[in-house]
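2 proteins. here.
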Amino acid sequence: MLGVPFLGAFEPADALGLIEIVANAPNRGSLRLEPDTVARLDALCASYHAAPDKEAFRAAHAETQAWWFGHRYAEWRAVETLLEGLDIAGAAVLDIGAGQGFDAWRLALRGARVTALEFSPIVAEAGAQSFPELRWIGGFAHALPFRNASFDHVFINAALHHMRDLPATIAEALRVLRPGGCLITSGDPFRADTTGPALEFDVFDRHEAVLLGINEQIPPLSDFLLTIERNRAVLAPEIFTQVLHGGRSGSGPALEEWTAWDLDADAPMLKARAGSLAMRIRLTAPWPHPRALQREGVLPPATFVGWLRDPARAVAEIARIIPRAMLDTPFPGAPAKFDLINGWRVARSTATTRTAYRRARLFRSRGAEPRLRFEARSNQPARITLLVNAVPAGTTPIGADWTALEADISAVPPGEPFVLEFQREGEPPDFDAGCFEVRLPAARAALGARLRDLLPRRLRRLAGMA
């Protein structure tokens, strides 16, 4: 499929990942990398690292002044640090979440025999075109399509925090390792265990890529450590923070850009902090657990790739397979990550309104009403088009005053899931200009609030009657 075999089928729980693939689909023609780019940038990072006067080096090399160089240098340093002492020449290495193949090729340049596993069919296609010397497989990190002990080492760079099930992904990565091999991870942000998902709503509130569909996450540290802590009998873990926020205490050395920690002594402290994580975990004995299997596959990858020819229509098709809990959620309702990647600035939600950025979606199932009614406003004049399953249902100019919006959904069969999309027309001059507010019509919103206020008293009366 697209030149890469894809093993397994997408599941309802993959909904956020599917939305991300759709968001990336318009970029399909520009995802390829030039192989010599990897070697050239690695050489630049190595020279920068060795330079005694880094400011002078940056002044003399224009590329080091680009916005992306700091990120690229951090990744290079992570690889150098975590591969220290490991001879990967000739080794069978699995790169999970390989993306376009940058890190996989970096490992291949060191002599490794690399298998690159990627969740997105269109990204895997670009990777296979850029680096055909690698073995490319489409598949799922939480249910790897490989036998036990298939690889000498497993590598996951800046990808774990995208996975839908971190503990299962780490368990699967360890399952396919041969005893004596290492699982190496880097570049993953984490939050304190005591911090809830609402942190993501604040962090990503003005993050354009996330609001347009990219599934960035900041998992709690326990999600990264759970599998390791439960299997210490067969693991020798090394834990590093690349960045650590919130102060320091514990048995580790003085806090620097890279810090090694003792898992047993320092885990309680680290779980109360936030930062960026890297790990090198050696498997000391055969992995004692069975492989994970897919049990809820509902969407063949080939079918999904067919949908991607029309990304807007693909979202309507995804509505048919998402978990039921994501359909017909109250509006405005409680904030959720699914809302965030569908364009709603959930940190800006109120009891009666939601704020959207450029385009926002609601996933609904058709009820008795043939029309849906909302109101919208914007600090700057804008035009809002409503789309039902990617079909335009009217465009309305809006401004500072609340303006009625109406969508005819009579073409949707009763009971069928569908997507209602609010789309701001045109390219906004800045982020704030791209935002607009949406609410239910004032009378209906007031009735809903009144019912919410009355419900507890009604329940108390019923309890008293009982």
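next one coming up
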Amino acid sequence: MSGVVGIKTKVGKTQKLFYSLSSIQHRGQDASGIILSTGENLRRIRGLGLVNEIFADENLKDSEGEYGLGHVRSAPEGCNQDYNVEPLVSFAKGNEFSLAHDGNLVNYKTLKKKEEEMGMAFHTYTDSELILLLITRYFEGDIVKAIRRAMKDLRGAYSCVLCMPDKIVGFRDYNGIRPLMIGFDEETTIIASENCSIEILDIENYRDIEAGEIVVCDKDGIKSYKEESKVDCKHCIFEYIYTARPDANIEGTNAYMFRRRSGEKLYDQAPVEADLVCPVPDSGTPSAIGFAQRSGIPFAAGLVRNRYMGRTFIKSDQKERELSVRLKLNPQKSVLNGKRIVLVDDSIVRGTTSAKLIQRIRKAGAREVHLRVTSPPVTNPCYYGVDTPDKSKLIAANLSVEEINKKIGADSLEFLSIDNLMDLTDNPCDYCKACFTGDYPIRKDEK
């Protein structure tokens, strides 16, 4: 999981890039990087850590040139190495190129093996390097033709921003799995994963970059290139459930309203008698509000969140996730003691953190704990950019709902049904639901 930002602006390029990138920190907390164009070449600053840890005042001085690029990254387990930090840079055919990528290629191993057999040496373990390699190989002076040619070879999810000294280019795979947007005013044009990166610059005019669309922003303005005949929209439904910020507006659907309505739907589907509705903050909060409003059961903050902890779902290993949950969430005994609690969460992936959290809530004195999950059971890994484990580690792939309930120690457990989930979307297009159904829009290459 990653976040990307590309910018063209006349004034304050570096500062604007810093603020926009910081606003999508939730999409990746392992590494950060930026590219600053001088108009003639590209300057890179990157490192392991959060945006505000990597970029200090001394390396955020503005440079000549109007273009910049930024990336935040959540690394798969074992892959958080400095050589994998984006944006990546390439020098080819007298030009400089830089790429930031959100998503995952399903034919990465096949493409890489083919290149290695041709004598190519790689410097990272990222599929972003392959995307950049193909673009530079096919570049003959027309960046749109080079990207379009590379897209013939690429299979999977990729929402990318490419930066050259004199332009930024955003492009999205033909399924549009991961989000990408463009916004602009008289002074600034910005391409970003979510609208929060755009709105933080007081830009109100923005739209989704469409599936299969290439958008070029240079001295001549903004130009769009579409290839609608190949488009088959399969937007990621998990963006609304968890990944995106609550204020995200993706493909016509607002994430907060989606989550609140999911809580309402879940109460209608699986009502329960209780004294309090408590969220697992922060992603479970809008859904818990909806559940409480529909049920009439009072809403309460039974878990206090440490605001200085990051997102536990994207931690690199299980031990770190479990420790992070303890540091991040603390049960309030004064709220929970003697009460029947409805605990509302967005998803259950491995189940271990849910079990430990319920144990701690009971230790704080809760009389009953009823877990309500505002997504269907996660039974399949994601191959398109969300770092879920393989099936052997997905609790719902191996146990029934009743068995999960017994294992995590809840008094009752209910997941939102897939039909009720899909009723929440405002866009008539199709969505990728593979993590719940196993119906992958693009099959993974197993070679």
